Every structure is written in structure tokens, then in C-alpha cells.
Amino acid sequence: VQDDKILARASYIGAPILDAQGDAAFWVQQDNRWTLLWKGRPAPGTPFSARGSNTSPTEVSPPAFSLDGRHVAYSRRGADGRYVVVRDGKSGTAYLSVGDPVFSPDSASMAYGAAAGPDYELNTLVLDDRIISQVQPKGGPPLSIRSLWGYRFLRNGRLTWFAALAGGKSCFILGDDTSADYDSVAQPAFDPGSRRAAFAGFRDMKAHAVVDGEDGPPYDAVAFLQFDEEGRRFAYTAKVGTSSLVVLDGVAGELFDEVGWVRFTPGDKGIAFWARKGSRWQTEPTRRNSDTSVRADKVGNLILAGSDGSVPVYSVSENGAWHLI
Questions:
Q1: CA 26 – CA 15 distance, rounded (Å)
Q2: N or C, which terminus of the chain has less Cβ within 10 Å?
Q3: Whole-prediction pTM value?
Q4: What percent of the chain is modeled with pLDDT above 90?
């Protein structure tokens, strides 16, 4: 039912999904056949025979749609138990398992992960007709993908993906660059509008915050990588020996014994975070306000309340007991 209008009756109906234009799409099984109903009619490539299951998760996947509303993709299980991704009625290569397909913002390209064997771990990235199963580190031999951790298109159409590689390495790939210049990567971060990407890259025992493909300074560790709501500003925490600091838009801040829970304040007024010197914790940059300075063993999540984000709400632990302040 959509807007009080009955769209279908069947022995099984899957959860409805709305495309970018608001049209509902859902799987139905009737007379031992699967049909993806979209825009009031069967989607390309459907109906087809069911394989014995009366629930969709084991045989078909939720559909994905292009932003222009012209293309649809989904995966289905074949008679041999392998899975194919079907785009506009055309089936791709069969794999042991496949990930969810995603379309580019201009609706021209599509990508998905696939398990080419020997097990069900996604170890291949399929981009349109291109199959990517290895990356080329600078100055070294190609390394096979062992586990594909995630993939998505940025608003500018560049595909980003990150994965574990053979030899204990990992990579974050931005666009068509299939090189891997880091020993390992972690903490991928994207701005809310999917325009920018960042991650922690580790090389030669040092950590870098890599933003839009550019290395930040080397630190002993980096964490809490994040963009503001507009995607214009970027912040993270870093360690230098036993001290910690916050880096905002490439500028390193004051050194503390420990920092954490970095938050951008509403209205692009800067950032707030926990900082510790000795046994005393305080919120920055309002550390001179006695209401935000506490003696505690540990501190918890920092939330900025109020219309202007000026009221810090947090939890603290002292002598084994937690308190909300």
C-alpha cells in the first residue's frame, strides 16, 4: 500500500523501498516466481523462477536505483547457488556472494563487491565492466584483495573503496588510482554531502590523516577523523609521544595529556572536545569556565546542547561510579 493505494496482493511481499522519485519497489512471490514490482510493473529481468525459499533475503536482494530513476539493479541466486547482479535486466558474472550495488551520482556507473573464491569473503570490486582484484603498491609487486571493507561513490562521481590486502596490508582507493602507498589504513570518514573523503594512513610506523588524497603530518596516532556539517572543515586528534592534541583545518592545537570526543559546534563556530591535564578533565575551548572543569577518572561522550551548541552535556566516572553532568 502506498498513499492508501493497494499496489499488489501476493503470498509474499517484501519490504517496500522508494526510489529517488518516490516510486515504491518491492519483491513479491506468487506461483513460485519472483517479481520485482517497480512503478506499478515488473522490473527488467523479472519475473523468474523461485528456488525453494519463500523469503527474499536468501534469494534476492533489495533493489538499488539510479538517481535519475532510469536504472535498477539487484542480486539474485541462481540454480547453482551462486549469485549474479542484474542491472536493467542484464545479468553479470556469477559469484559465490555479492555485495549491494551502488550507482554513481550521474547514474552512468555502477559498482559492487563480489566473492570470487575460494570462500565467501568479498575480494573483488566490479565497476561497470571492469573487475578489480588487486592493487599496485608503489615500488612493490601487485597485492591481491583479501577482504573488501566498503565502497561508495562521492558526489563528484569518484568511487572510493577500502580493503584488506595480501601480506597484512590494507588500502583506501580514491577514484581511478589503484595504487596503495600505505602499510595499512583505518577510520574512513566522509562529509555529510559525500563530497570529501578522509582516512588514517599508516606508513613507516607513523600515522597520517589523509584528506582528499593528501597526506597530513606524521603523528604517532590519529583518531576521531571528521568533517563539519558543510564539509568545509576537518578535524582529528593526534598523539605526539605521550601527549595529545587536536588538529583543525591542518593547524595543530595545544598539547594535553589526553584528548577525545571531538565535536563540531553548530553554526560553524569551531570545535569542542575533552582535554586532560593531570587528573583534571575540561571541555575545550571553554576550559576557563569552572562549570566545564571536573576531576574524574574517566569521561564519556560529549554532547553539545542548546540552540548554539554552547551547553556541554557529558558523563564522568569517579571512584567507579558514573555521573551525568
A1: 6
A2: N
A3: 0.78
A4: 51
